[in-house]
């Protein structure tokens, strides 16, 4: 109890410190501290995220301890999920349709729009408060990302989001039934978005929906087989890998297990990732 009170007092005092962003910009130009330090050095304001010397995008820092915002401020676009971002950047530039599913505040879709403004880009984020941050990031960049405040699944209608908020302010997960800390949200299947895939040849997808990935891919219907998208797929455990592998069976995909510290390794099938993601690519689209 006393520790919590002291922490709250210190946080209140920290909030009163003026010009934090300007101070941190000077600090960053001289020395970048370790992540366990800079993730506590947050502020409120807009900052520029460098992708490479020619490409940047803007992002809001909301003055919370959300690691991704602080990581991008201190270390640029590749600070989070370094090797996943490298693969994403490579394939963004040859794609005409890009889907950021489970977009959160928009890192992957913002990066895609900065690198390939001619692509059609859609970002899906069902949690309203997170969606509002995504929309704000899109607006300050004047990007033309098409935003969808809906959940994707294998059912059309309504599913439930389990959303505890608090320390998990930026995360939630799907349930098909009403359980504690859940509420209903609109759910759609991708194959019911009839115009989305029309005349598209090179589709790139980032899929990060907290263990609901198989349902989203199932909701693509025949598009998974016919369009053969390149997919950056979050796989956090082995619980759903059997169903995921069944969806890709016979489609002649190659898979890379991504370790964000060491790089990527070819694997025979989808498995629990060494980091967060498995890269799934049709053999004929490997570059």
Number of helical runs? Answer: 10
The fold-level CATH name of the largest domain is Rossmann fold
| Cα gyration radius (Å) | 19 Å
Percentage beta strand: 25-35%
Features:
287 residues; alpha/beta; 4-stranded mixed β-sheet; 10 helices; 32% helix; 26% strand; globular
Topology:
Layout: H1 2-15, H2 20-30, H3 35-38, E1 44-52, E2 55-62, H4 67-75, H5 82-92, E3 97-101, H6 107-115, E4 120-124, H7 128-141, E5 146-148, E6 151-152, E7 157-162, E8 173-175, E9 182-188, E10 203-207, H8 213-218, H9 223-227, E11 230-234, H10 241-248, E12 253-259, E13 263-267, E14 277-282
Parallel strand pairs: 3-4, 3-10, 4-5, 6-9, 10-11
Antiparallel strand pairs: 1-2, 7-8, 7-9, 11-14, 12-13, 12-14
Helix pairs in contact: 5-6
Describe this structure in words.
- By secondary structure, the chain is an alpha/beta fold.
- It folds into two domains: 2-75, no CATH class; 81-285, Vaccinia Virus protein VP39 (Rossmann fold, 3-Layer(aba) Sandwich), CATH 3.40.50.
- 32% of the residues lie in helices and 26% in strands.
- It is built from ten helices and 14 strands.
- The protein has helices at residues 2-15, 20-30, 35-38, 67-75, 82-92, 107-115, 128-141, 213-218, 223-227, 241-248, and strands at 44-52, 55-62, 97-101, 120-124, 146-148, 151-152, 157-162, 173-175, 182-188, 203-207, 230-234, 253-259, 263-267, 277-282.
- The strands form three sheets. Strands 5-4-3-10-11-14-12-13 form an eight-stranded mixed beta sheet, covered by helices on one side.
- Helix 5 (82-92) packs parallel to helix 6.
- The longest helix has 14 residues, at 2-15.
